[in-house]
């Protein structure tokens, strides 16, 4: 599988913008993984430290370890 391929091609991809220790990171993630990532990240960091931004995700790197966020 390509590093740019979604683990769930049937899910739409979303743009995640993550703020961590003063740095911003932007990733693409399938909707299922994004929702679980957001829930987990907000529970362990600041509630507003991750956002979903509308727009194209084609040029974004996939969320690292995205597959780990496919199951609750």
What do these coordinates show?
The structure is a single chain. The chain is an alpha+beta fold. It has one helix spanning 31-44; strands at 13-20, 23-30, 50-53, 61-62. It has one domain. It is built from one helix and four strands, in the order ββαββ. A hairpin with a 2-residue loop joins strand 1 (13-20) and strand 2 (23-30).
Short key terms for the protein model shown above:
72 residues; alpha+beta; 4-stranded mixed beta sheet; 1 helix; 4 strands; 31% strand
The count of strands amounts to: 4
Mean pLDDT: 90
The poorly predicted ranges are none
List the domain count as a whole number.
1
Short description:
By secondary structure, the chain is of the alpha+beta class.
Provide the fold topology.
Elements: E1 13-20, E2 23-30, H1 31-44, E3 50-53, E4 61-62
Parallel strand pairs: 2-4
Antiparallel strand pairs: 1-2, 1-3
């Amino acid at each position: 599988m390509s590093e740019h391929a979604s683990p769930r091609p049937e899910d739409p991809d979303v743009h995640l913008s993550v703020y961590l220790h003063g740095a911003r990171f932007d990733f693409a993630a399938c909707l299922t993984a994004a929702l679980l990532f957001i829930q987990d990240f907000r529970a362990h960091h600041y509630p507003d430290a991750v956002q979903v931004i509308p727009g194209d995700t084609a040029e974004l790197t996939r969320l690292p370890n995205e597959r780990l966020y496919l199951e609750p």
